[in-house]
């Protein structure tokens, strides 16, 4: 096995990782990159790093393997105690006071690694909220590394992950397994939605992947792996993903004022946190899509991630649409695309108006009713969202996403029997597809994988 790492090969790997994942390896980290690639090489079946590079350029699976080999998953529960103290003592009281009426909170762990951070957040919320069961809590956890996400979904951890955790807290929220391993309680595990997302790609904030209107975003020890241009692009998108008054927490080494000029700076004991101003527009103006890097070819979303998010990728908008122009029937696809664009940037009012326009001109458009339901669900209007999903399913029985969304609302609102029937109906529909066939509107997810996901949901209903 040849692990020679010439100057030219270093530059090519460095540029490939930068353009395809945003990971930045400057010259002083050349030895780190070489070490990681050397460790990855045996598992790939290639004899040389040169051959590995050639494969990574053309094959997403190989590239994913390389990315997983060079990303760092070192983390543990309640890492950086001062930041969790700020969450408990500064951020949560603010959110509880402002959200007491609707009792709904949205959190996003961006760069969640193996899951210790979002699970720490779930535990903190359970401990700190006066009546946690009375609140609708959403915790989204994303990472670029699919191997980390699989470990996070399993929720099993060794003693090293608890090195700053009170043993009493660990015993309260984890089940002891063999040896020195513990598994997170199933009720907390179900609170967290894990999905693959590359922070460098311009795919968020978007209603379609659940990254809009966040109350708190934790993006800690992630930005340090990017160059300055990439950091600025990521921070702009994170700012847009926050609701007015929302909070951003980054790693201690990442708190550079020039990156966070749009935010208010809040000093807490032992840490600095950032807040989107309360007076910021509820719906930010669309920011021109300028990727931090021109992607050679975007990394595909894995089917396991699609099953976790239960949402498709947003459609590309039509640049020629003018919203004040009456919509003809043959313009309906453009109307739907622009409605999705408005929803993605958080302008739900415009998105809803466009959906209503489309429904008026194309009342049999199942896709319009589906998007209408997604917007209503985002606004917390679950009864109306459910009705929209029912209309979408009625118009197109093969619109599996609408049926799954309908089942999800029934599940969340405690309509156990109806949810079970909806899941079972979807299972029957998926059974008509070849097991390895991709399911329409679910990107790369196969029928077999979605069946497994739905079966787990049905099992949860019967617990």
UniProtKB/TrEMBL annotation:
<feature type="repeat" description="TPR">
    <location>
        <begin position="366"/>
        <end position="399"/>
    </location>
</feature>
<keyword id="KW-0808">Transferase</keyword>
<protein>
    <recommendedName>
        <fullName>protein-glutamate O-methyltransferase</fullName>
        <ecNumber>2.1.1.80</ecNumber>
    </recommendedName>
</protein>
<dbReference type="Pfam" id="PF14559">
    <property type="entry name" value="TPR_19"/>
</dbReference>
<dbReference type="InterPro" id="IPR036804">
    <property type="entry name" value="CheR_N_sf"/>
</dbReference>
<dbReference type="InterPro" id="IPR019734">
    <property type="entry name" value="TPR_rpt"/>
</dbReference>
<feature type="domain" description="CheR-type methyltransferase">
    <location>
        <begin position="1"/>
        <end position="279"/>
    </location>
</feature>
<keyword id="KW-0949">S-adenosyl-L-methionine</keyword>
<dbReference type="InterPro" id="IPR000780">
    <property type="entry name" value="CheR_MeTrfase"/>
</dbReference>
<dbReference type="InterPro" id="IPR022642">
    <property type="entry name" value="CheR_C"/>
</dbReference>
<keyword id="KW-0489">Methyltransferase</keyword>
<dbReference type="InterPro" id="IPR029063">
    <property type="entry name" value="SAM-dependent_MTases_sf"/>
</dbReference>
<dbReference type="GO" id="GO:0008983">
    <property type="term" value="F:protein-glutamate O-methyltransferase activity"/>
</dbReference>
<dbReference type="InterPro" id="IPR050903">
    <property type="entry name" value="Bact_Chemotaxis_MeTrfase"/>
</dbReference>
<dbReference type="GO" id="GO:0032259">
    <property type="term" value="P:methylation"/>
</dbReference>
<dbReference type="Pfam" id="PF01739">
    <property type="entry name" value="CheR"/>
</dbReference>
<keyword id="KW-0802">TPR repeat</keyword>
<dbReference type="InterPro" id="IPR011990">
    <property type="entry name" value="TPR-like_helical_dom_sf"/>
</dbReference>
